[in-house]
Write a structure and sequence with these properties.
This protein is mostly beta strands and 167 residues long. It has one domain: Jelly Rolls (Sandwich), CATH 2.60.120.10. 12% of the residues lie in helices and 41% in strands. The protein contains three helices and 13 strands. It has helices at 5-11, 148-154, 159-164, and strands at 15-16, 22-28, 32-33, 46-47, 50-57, 62-66, 70-78, 81-86, 92-97, 108-111, 116-121, 127-135, 144-145. The strands form three sheets. It has a six-stranded antiparallel beta sheet.
């Protein structure tokens, strides 16, 4: 019998995430990168890397947001997850995470620093359990949740998706 989403929430001690879904940070590097060695858009020193478990269940989504570092997504368990990325040129890239390469599933995807991105379980999915690694490490000072109106104005060609995946 396959574990359900509630099992993973309990087993991994996941809590509500501000962008949607549930998460828990499981790694934060002890190596500190000084601000002077980072690009200007970082607001302070950062750890070299961080990693979280992240779960989205059916009907949930991670709202459009962006961060100052690359984010590596890793598929762990459950059903396919779609990660939508609007890159610096305004082009929409759709990443399908999953464990079935015959259905275009990938174990890994990278979202480039500064891209807007959101995610949701693929149609028919009960839940997806993934991991997210950020380097330099994640800090909420580098996190920006999208404003629905501003993002739609900036990328009108993606208006329907933006409306669906913003709060």
């Amino acid at each position: 019998m396959r574990p359900n989403a509630a099992y993973w929430l309990d087993k991994l001690q996941l809590t509500r995430h501000v962008e949607g879904g549930a998460f828990r940070e499981v790694y934060r590097s002890e190596l500190i990168i000084p601000r002077k060695s980072l690009p200007l858009f970082f607001q302070g020193d950062r750890t070299a890397s961080t990693h979280i478990y992240f779960l989205l269940a059916e009907g949930q989504f991670s709202a459009f947001h962006r961060i100052a570092a690359d984010e590596h997504w890793h598929f762990y368990f459950g059903d396919p997850l779609i990660v939508y990325e609007i890159n610096h040129n305004g082009r929409l890239v759709t990443h399908r995470l999953g464990n079935d390469p015959l259905k275009e599933g990938s174990f890994h995807a990278v979202i480039k620093a500064g891209s807007w991105f959101a995610s949701a379980p693929a149609e028919g999915s009960e839940y997806a359990l993934v991991g997210c690694t950020v380097a330099p490490g994640f800090d909420f000072a580098d996190f920006e949740l999208a404003d629905k109106e501003k993002l739609t104005e900036q990328y009108p060609e993606h208006a329907a998706l933006i409306r669906r995946l913003t709060r």
